Amino acid sequence: MSRIIPFGNHARSASQKSRPSRRRSSGFARWRDAAAAVALGALALIGLTAITNIDRGFAQAVAARDDRAGVRVRAIDGDTVAVIGGGERIRLPNIDAPETGDRARCAAERQTGAEATAFVRAAVAGKPVSLRRIGLDRYGRTLAYVSVDGRDLGDAVIAAGLARRWSGRRTSWC
User: Fold this and answer.
1) Which residue of 127, 143, 150, 154 has the fewest CB atoms within a 10 Å radius of its CB?
2) Which residue, among 87, 141, 79, 65, has the nearest Cα to 116 in the 3D structure?
C-alpha cells in the first residue's frame, strides 16, 4: 500500500509528489516574454547612451581646463607621461609607440619601446612642458599634446624613428 502525502487540498501518493507540471505556455505568454526582453534591451541601450554622453561631457570638461605651461612631467613609456606631483597620466594622441615589458609582442617591439621611453625621459627631464588637453582616452588618461621647448613631443619621437603617427588603431611592431 502506498503512503499518501498531503499536498495542499489534494492528497497525492509518494510517486506523484515530485512530478513536474507539463503545461505548455500560451502564445500570449511567449509574446509577453519576448516584449519584456525587447523592452529590457531598449532600456539597457538608453542607459549606455546616457553613460556615454556623461563620459563625453566629462572629457569635454577635462579638455576645457586651462592648458598649462611650465608643468613638469616624467616618462611612463614612449607615448605616455605623468604630471609630477599631480599624478595625472597624459597620453600623446598623435603617436603610436611600441609597448614595453610584458605587453610587447616580440623582442624587437620591447627593444624599440625601451628606446622610445628613454628618448621621452631624456626629452622631458628637468624641463617645463606645455600641455594642450583634448579629452580622455578609453583608459581614463588625459589626451594632450605635449610641447617641450616649443616642439611637439610626439613629432619628436616620430622624427627619431621610435614611434608612428597614430592611425586610429595599433599596428604590429614585430
Assistant:
1) 150
2) 79
Kindly report the backbone phi and psi dihedral angles of residue 145, in degrees, each rounded to the nearest multiple of 5, phi listed first: -80, 130
Cβ proximity of 174 and 105 under 8 Å: yes
pTM > 0.70: yes or no: no
All cell numbers assigned to 33: 516574454
Phi, psi angle pair for 39, to nearest 5°: -65, -40
- Beta-carbon contacts of residue 91 (< 8 Å; ≥ 6 apart): 79, 80, 137, 139, 141, 142, 143, 144
Q: What SS3 state is found at 118? A: helix
pLDDT in tens, 126-147: 899 999 999 998 888 899 999 9
Quote the CA–CA distance of 119 and 157 in Å, as a whole number. Answer: 7
